[in-house]
Amino acid sequence: MREENNQNFPMDELPDSIEDVIDSIFEEEDTHSEGEKGRKSHVRPAQEQEDRIEPWELLPENRVRVKVKCRLKDEGIFVEVNVDFKVESIEGDKVILSSPNFVFVWRCLEKGNEVLLLSNDEKYLLIGEVENMDLRKETLVVKLKGKPIRYSRQLFRVEVNPKKPIYLVMRVDQEPIVATVNDINEEACSFIYKNLPLLPGDIFGVVLRFPDGKKILIPDSEVITIRNRNDGLRIYVLKIKVPEKEKSYLRKFLIERQREILNKLKEG
User: Are 187 and 154 in contact (CB under 8 A)?
Assistant: First the structure.
């Protein structure tokens, strides 16, 4: 995870327009909760939460396990390889993966090997084949089968450029909060922040403010997972329901960011 996202955007540096947006967005929410003490919990029953688990939730920090049965190049024997990779970028039907154990991977895999991309709990996600390996950059390119363009938007979140941040504006216990988005896709985003009084299942409105000033209001975002970090901060993953009229903008942003990451990898 990037350390740049540990810094919270100061409220006193917010442009007036954003503060106005906060007030107008949550006016209706305040009316609904008026007269209640403390935070209105939107937590859903545990059973319902379990039933509603979706694929992208199974990818903390965009890490997947690559599983393949292949022949060791040197020894000529068959082995089953399980290596954890980080998803670096997606382009069409190709996924670029990286791993600190890449020398071992390079020794085992060959172009054309069929592989499974799995979540850490070994639940099946996608199937593909090795298209290319780059020992210098320690990257593996897997060509996906099926309908990978649709899957890629749902399964993998794109890391946001810290030099072009997306700010997430929300209100928790009536306090306005501004956090920096860590990664995002069409259905979810994550951010790093200190301990907040939030629980999985909580539903509330947020505003996403993009680098070009574009603001997208999401009335019903839902907390999916909350994970603790060693530095005392927490990683919050939100399910976001982007309005239909804003989806094309978000898709364009994701494609451009994926291309930016890919070009950076190509440049080495």
Answer: yes
Nearest-CA neighbor of 45 among 224, 201, 222, 197?
201
According to the 3-state scheme, what is the secondary structure of 121-169? CCCEEEEEEEEEEECCCCEEEEEECCCHHHHHHHHCCEECCCCCCCEEE
E-strand spans in 26-138? 63-71, 78-91, 94-98, 114-118, 124-134
Contact between 85 and 142 under an 8 Å Cβ cutoff? The reply is no
User: Is the Cβ–Cβ distance between 117 and 99 less than 8 Å?
Assistant: no
Architecture of domain 4-55+158-263: Beta Barrel (2.40)
For the segment 192-218, what is each residue's pLDDT rounded down to a tens digit? 999 899 998 999 999 999 999 999 999
- How do residues 186-198 score in pLDDT, each as one tens digit? 888 989 999 899 9
Q: Is the dihedral of CA 81, 262, 100, 54 positive or negative?
A: negative
pLDDT one-digit tens code per residue, 100-127 = 777 777 777 778 888 777 655 555 567 7
Q: Does 4-55+158-263 match 60-155 in CATH topology? A: yes
pTM comes to: 0.55
Tokens standing for residue 128:
């593909």
CATH topology of domain 60-155: Thrombin, subunit H (2.40.10)
C-alpha 148/C-alpha 100 separation (Å) is 25
DSSP string, 242-254: --HHHHHHHHHHH
Domain boundaries, given as residue ranges, for the chain: 4-55+158-263, 60-155
Per-residue DSSP letter, 213? S
Give me the helices (H) in 6-81, please.
Answer: 16-25, 27-33, 46-51
